[in-house]
Design brief:
Number of strands: 9
Strand order of the largest sheet: 3-9-8-7-6-4-5
Low-confidence stretches: 279-351
Structural class: alpha/beta
Order of helices and strands: HEEHHHEHEHEEHEHEEHH
Bound molecules: pyridoxal-5'-phosphate
Helix content: 25-40%
Radius of gyration: 22 Å
Distance between the termini: 43 Å
Mean pLDDT: 81
Length: 351
């Protein structure tokens, strides 16, 4: 029998134990639901308040540039890319996992126009199977659902795309994506993997396994919070030929040309219809990489000696003081580091 004292000893010896201080949880809550919604990271509430009160309330339209909102999808993609073993230009951050999966299944199936099967397994997350059904209806394809352990054996030259969620949300059972990707390529099929239950929890390396495309959410193990956007990945070798079925102005090669004709940006950025989903998440949460030299996100005339990026529990935090004395929005000089002059519980500079 495991006693509470045993667990306390294990906790004390856990090299990751200090990370507990980077999330806010109600007292006495033992939270084991990060697979559904990761907990609130220290400092995020203050940052979101700043985004609303200063970025939106005071900066208004200037904040697209001055607060860096227009650039947030790119910056978020840069943060996610190393977590999934991809380059930043292979990742776009936008919309929901379901919407991104739709984009990729359509785009990948179109790369195999002579094949008519979307292959998936019976343990895949429900939304993924619903989306696959919708894509099959749209493109005149067939969804073939097989037992999870049989995916590799079910691959044949009729399969255009095989799609699965790497980690089963019910059991934690994990597909061997390297083997599956190789088997798919052997029959000429493409892969779209759902990493929602992997990224941030287990090692993911899409380039090492030669994956074609992938999606995932950010509100589970990446602690993006409710409403945080999803991400999609397209391997660089497909960038020239892949085309998204959802077009929007930020997916345009020159969004501010406002041209009549659509000319997609190369690669996954062509799937970014607009930057809005990132805006209120401007302190993009990355609590696990504190101290790696990240710079502060640009914010209203930040006095770098003030604790703008510190936790909500900091004394004299700038969220409060700034809201008492509003300042015009200006971009701080590039490369400034966030420092606190006052004690804080934890907190980091990452947006
Ligand atoms: C594996 C997996 N895929 C897709 C989804 C759906 O995500 P969204 O609601 O962002 O479309 C979820 C939601 O929990 C999920 O766990």
């Amino acid at each position: 029998v495991v006693e509470r004292a045993d667990l306390a000893r294990s906790d004390a010896a856990d090299p990751l134990a200090s990370l507990r201080d980077r999330v806010e949880l109600p007292p006495d809550v033992v939270y084991l639901d990060g697979n559904s919604l990761g907990p609130l990271c220290v400092g995020v509430a203050a940052r979101v308040r700043l985004a609303v009160e200063h970025g939106w309330g005071e900066g208004l339209i200037r904040s697209w540039n001055d607060a860096g909102w227009a650039d947030l999808p790119r910056r978020a993609a840069e943060r996610i890319a190393p977590l999934i073993g991809a380059d930043a230009d292979e990742v776009a951050v936008t919309d929901s996992t379901s919407a991104d999966l739709f984009r990729l299944l359509v785009a990948m199936a179109r790369l195999r126009p002579d094949r008519r099967v979307l292959l998936t397994d019976d343990r895949n997350f429900p939304t993924d199977r619903y989306v696959a059904g919708g894509v099959a209806d749209l493109l005149g394809l067939e969804v073939r659902v097989v037992p999870a352990g049989d995916l590799a054996d079910a691959l044949d030259p009729s399969v255009a795309v095989v799609t699965a969620t790497e980690v089963d949300y019910r059991t934690g059972v994990r597909h061997d994506l390297a083997t599956l990707t190789g088997a798919a390529h052997d029959v000429g099929a493409l892969t779209v993997w759902d990493l929602s239950h992997s990224t941030g929890a287990v090692h993911v390396d899409l380039q090492a396994i030669d994956a074609d495309a992938a999606v995932g959410c950010t509100y589970k193990y990446l602690n993006g919070g409710p409403g945080a956007p999803a991400y999609l990945h397209v391997a660089r070798r497909h960038h020239a030929e892949v085309s998204t079925p959802v077009r929007g102005w930020f997916g345009h090669a020159e969004p501010f040309a406002f041209s009549d004709a659509y000319a997609p940006a190369p690669g996954p950025r062509g799937s970014t219809p607009g930057p809005r989903r990132c805006c209120h998440w401007s302190r993009w949460t990355r609590p696990w990489t504190r101290g790696t030299g990240s710079t502060c996100a640009p914010w209203p005339r930040v006095d770098v000696s003030s604790p703008t990026c510190s936790s909500a529990s900091s004394t004299g935090g700038s969220a409060g003081s700034a809201s008492r004395s509003p300042r015009p929005v200006t971009r701080p000089s590039a490369g400034r580091r966030c420092r606190s002059r006052t004690p804080r519980r934890t907190g980091s500079c990452v947006p």
